[in-house]
Design goal:
By secondary structure, the protein is mainly α. Helices cover 66% and strands 0% of the residues. It has one domain: Farnesyl Diphosphate Synthase, CATH 1.10.600.
């Protein structure tokens, strides 16, 4: 008589991470789990947390300095807006996999399309549904929020579809950095405030410059696949070591310039601790130079994970400093 195996997460729900094989012994059918994997849930944490942090910071900043009245349902607005931004990111993830399945067969064969769980045309339709749903949600919040969400969508769509900016050297990194950095910050701030105020513009530009450099980490695993499918990146053109040196200034100097912005009254003095985030680019640079290995569970190298974690904590720190900084009157070190 066979002894029954203890029930674990894997036996009930199937694979825990993207790289594990699809199993028949699951609560979710393969097709449903395939759709979940199209969204790449790990990467959705960054836009959700970052947008929520910026929106709350905008709420408190504009209440304190511009006389904004805080409504009792503010938390619902924050959740609705941050979910909308996460939905746009999920849609772009699905569309990118739908158009990159030939490259994924080489570098990421564990994804649902190369494994035959989801067809490319299914993934593309799935992405369009998410885009439409996100846009409809966005326009019900504020006109500026809806406008910025539309711009973000245009950047992500044209990154994967013609003119397919992904294939052009260096432009591909800028094309990702603008929506994920600058436009994402401006969209989040616009929920409760003026998106063209110096604070969100400067924070957005810092995020954009950081991503122009840091996004090179995502191309290391895909180097050969990108080259075979006609996509030119810094990694497959100049190699990882040279790319690290090219990328480092974009990642590092925006944080170091924060005291200069404070000195010129473009940012409040209580935001100077954000300069300390210049440490993370140094770590990312070190990992790239040392030949960072691909993670056994996540989809990329450890430097790529550090890049996302640093951005999340940068936004959280900005929100905390904005909420409490002026209350406790943190002095400038200048």
């Amino acid at each position: 008589m066979k002894r029954s195996q203890p029930k674990t997460f894997s036996t009930k729900f199937g694979k825990l991470t993207m790289k594990e094989p699809y199993s028949k012994r699951r609560l979710f059918p393969k097709h449903i789990r395939g759709y979940i994997d199209l969204l790449r849930p790990f990467t959705l944490a960054a836009p959700a947390i970052v947008s929520m942090s910026i929106i709350v910071a905008s709420l408190i900043y504009n209440w304190r300095y511009n006389g904004l009245t805080i409504q009792s349902d503010w938390w619902f607005t924050v959740g609705n807006a941050s979910l909308t931004i996460a939905l746009v990111n999920a849609a772009s993830n699905a569309l990118n996999q739908a158009t990159d399945y030939e490259a994924d067969k080489i570098s990421k064969p564990y994804r649902p399309i190369p494994r035959g769980i989801i067809r490319p045309e299914e993934a593309q339709s799935f992405a369009y549904i998410f885009y439409l749903f996100a846009l409809l949600r966005a326009v019900t919040l504020t006109p500026w929020f809806g406008f910025f969400i539309f711009l973000i969508m245009m950047f992500t769509v044209t990154y994967s579809l013609p003119p397919r900016m992904k294939q052009y050297l260096f432009i591909n990194q800028i094309w990702i950095a603008i929506p994920r950095g600058l436009l994402g910050i401006l969209a989040s701030w616009s929920v409760f405030g003026d998106p063209f105020h110096p604070v969100p513009v400067i924070i957005g530009l810092i995020a954009m410059m950081y991503f122009i450099g840091a996004m090179s980490t995502k191309d290391i695993v895909d180097s050969e696949a990108d080259k075979k499918t006609g996509v030119r990146t810094l990694i497959n053109t100049y190699g990882t070591r040279v790319t690290a040196f090219i990328s480092f200034p974009f990642m590092f100097f925006p944080f170091i310039l924060i005291p200069l912005f404070i000195q010129n009254n473009c940012l409040e003095s209580f935001l100077w601790p954000l300069t300390l985030f210049g440490f993370f680019p140094v770590l990312i640079f070190y990992l790239m130079i040392e030949g960072d290995a691909e993670s056994k569970t996540l989809e990329n190298i450890h430097a790529w994970s550090v890049m996302y974690v640093a951005y999340i904590f940068f936004a959280l720190s900005f929100a905390v400093l904005t909420i409490f900084g002026s209350i406790i009157n943190i002095p400038s070190l200048l």
